[in-house]
Every structure is written in C-alpha cells, then in structure tokens.
C-alpha cells in the first residue's frame, strides 16, 4: 500500500513537471546516461515552462504526455518495492499525474495573480523538485 502512495505521489510530480519525477527516480539509482538525459529534459522544461508561448498543460499534447510520464514513474516506483505490483503503480501514477496537472494548473493561475508569472513558475518548479526528492527517498 505504501508503494502505491509513493507511485501516486511521483505521479503528482509528473503532472506538475513531466520530466522531474522520472529524472529523480533515475538519479536515485545513480548517474547514468538516462539520469543525465532526463535531468537535462527537466532543466529544459523549467526554462520552457516560464515562456508565455508554451501551451497550457491541460491541452494536447501535454495532457497525454504528463499521465504517460506518471504511469512510467509509478511503474518504476512500485518496482523498487518487493511487494509492489507495477500495473497498480502505473495506474496510481496516472491518477496522480492527472491531479498534479489540473491541481497544478489551478494553483499556478492563482499564484500568477498573486505574485506574477515568473515567480509562480519558479515556485512550482521548487515544489515539484521537493516533492520528487521526498517521494524517491522513501
């Protein structure tokens, strides 16, 4: 059950930032080609996400890619636990990613009104990184 919570949580991270959960999982296993590539993808996403021309996360293709990222991250998160069931982890990751996508969108819009677009983007990046670190260290 704990592994499904962790899969859901890493899915939320994928809903906030597509590559952050995957990069955190890869980095938790050590430095490799995959961890470097996923980390570069995450860094690129942080920069691109702050640009005004980037489409909403609730539009295509993002609304498909984020749950897919959540499914992959959830699968791998559960695979790290001996009693984990990877298909259940994938489903939990998808559900978490949908929550992170829509909840993050609503929070981001509110934050933009309160503190502006760039500070809101940076704040969301920090939250995604902190949550990813939390979930992969459990």
What's the structural blueprint in terms of helices and strands?
Blueprint: H1 2-16, H2 20-28, H3 33-49, H4 62-79, H5 86-115, H6 117-136
Helix pairs in contact: 1-4, 1-5, 1-6, 2-3, 2-6, 4-5, 5-6
Would you kindly provide a written description of the structure presented here, covering whatever features stand out?
The chain is mainly alpha-helical. It has helices at residues 2-16, 20-28, 33-49, 62-79, 86-115, 117-136.
**Roughly what percent helix?**
over 70%
Task: Return the string of H and E elements.
Answer: HHHHHH
Please state the structural category.
mainly alpha
Instruction: Name the shape in a single word.
Output: globular
Total beta strand runs:
0
Report mean pLDDT, rounded to a whole number.
96
Radius of gyration: 14 Å
Q: Which ranges are low-confidence, i.e. pLDDT below 50, for 5 or more consecutive residues?
A: none
Q: How many domains comprise the coordinates?
A: 1
Q: N-to-C terminal Cα separation, in Å?
A: 13 Å
**Tally of DSSP helical segments:** 6
Portion of residues in beta strands equals under 5%
Task: Describe this structure in a few short sentences.
With about 140 residues, the protein is mainly α. The chain has six helices and no strands.
């Amino acid at each position: 059950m704990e592994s499904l919570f962790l899969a859901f949580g890493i899915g939320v991270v994928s809903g906030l930032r597509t590559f952050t959960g995957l990069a955190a999982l890869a980095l938790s296993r050590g430095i490799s080609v995959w961890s470097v590539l996923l980390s570069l993808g995450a860094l690129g996403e942080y920069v691109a996400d702050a640009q005004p021309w980037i489409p909403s996360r609730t539009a295509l293709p993002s609304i498909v890619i984020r749950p897919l990222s959540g499914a992959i991250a959830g699968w791998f998160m559960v695979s790290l636990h001996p009693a984990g069931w990877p298909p259940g982890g994938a489903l939990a990751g998808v559900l978490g990613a949908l929550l992170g996508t829509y909840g993050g969108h609503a929070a981001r819009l509110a934050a933009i009104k309160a503190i502006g677009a760039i500070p809101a983007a940076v704040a969301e990046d920090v939250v995604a990184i902190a949550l990813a670190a939390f979930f992969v260290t459990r």
